[in-house]
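Just curious: can you write whichever protein you like plus the matching structure tokens?

***
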Amino acid sequence: MLKSDLYARLRTEIERVLNAVVQEEFATPCEASDSDAQESDAQEAVVAKSIRATAWNIERGKQFGGISRALAEEPSMSRSDVLLLTELDYGMARTDNRHVARDLARALGMNYVFAPCYLALTKGSGVENRVEGENTHALHGNAILSRHALANAHAVALPNGKDKMRGKEKRLGSQRAVVVEVSHPSGKFRAVSLHLDAHSTQRHRARQMQLVLEHLESLKPRLPVIIGGDWNTSTYNSSRAVYSIAGYFRRVAMGVRNVIVKHYPHPDRWFERHLFREIERRGFSYRELNETGAGTLHYDIKDLAAYENMREWVPRWCFWFIEWALRQNGGRCSLKLDWFAGQGITPTGGSSPKVITDLSKTYGPLSDHDPVFLEFNIRR
């Protein structure tokens, strides 16, 4: 790239775009209805004090209509004060060239901040490359939506876990954490939408988390913080296919059922321990902010899209071995990839953190990830 005359001409503009943060306001003040006015003072105090957050990898926003409906109608998500969203397209053919963050914010009547992470040089991975049409803006990134005022929005660039120009899905850029201050009636706090690299080592993901936490420590004034997103805590070193394959053989040797029950839903116990220990070492918490042992990504050997994506970097013979290893578990396994962490916050009493499951029964398939929901209070 550095030897390319074309890249030399475009480099300044590419870096300007990838370092940008887009912010718009679509939220309007809510007027209390007659029924709202009749609520007791105690109920009003709880509503004003509690903050509701949903973190969700929406898989590009490919199922935009169903995602929009789910966010507007599902009981927990529809009441969220802040949405920490990862994997949103802007001008990609696979999502009808939508600006997914803006269109969602407009549909939900929320303010939003969007930070592009990648300039895509292809249509995507797997089956995405066969969609009709061409990319327009060809951007992909992360976002935060809220019903409340947002200020001091910015993005934190994270180092890549692999060369994004290797393989079939070629991209310029890197993951970025989106950071913004939210003015909630119960107090101001910082929200962070964080997507860590999938094709990386466990230590690289821990390093990415460390950089985000160090950045948050440097911000003034100090505010309560909620971090949510897809941290890709798969338990695997996925920086190269050979390492993933070796890791899979190791887990089979440990006992397939043992790994499915004790490690995939609990990556903090061993394989991803460095990341979670770093969180706690810096004074953040995560244990009480998540539903323990509940997976958020569910692999099924019959899933054609997952097969197509994996086939681009894993040899065909591996799929026979995966099918053999999962035969006693119905050909399925679940991994816990999506999390919350926080500082200066506590879960609201009487409301447990949860993974929101079975959205597909009502809205059809929406994403390869389940959303996670948390209701919390600012610690005084």
Remarks:
- The first strand starts at residue 22 and ends at 24.
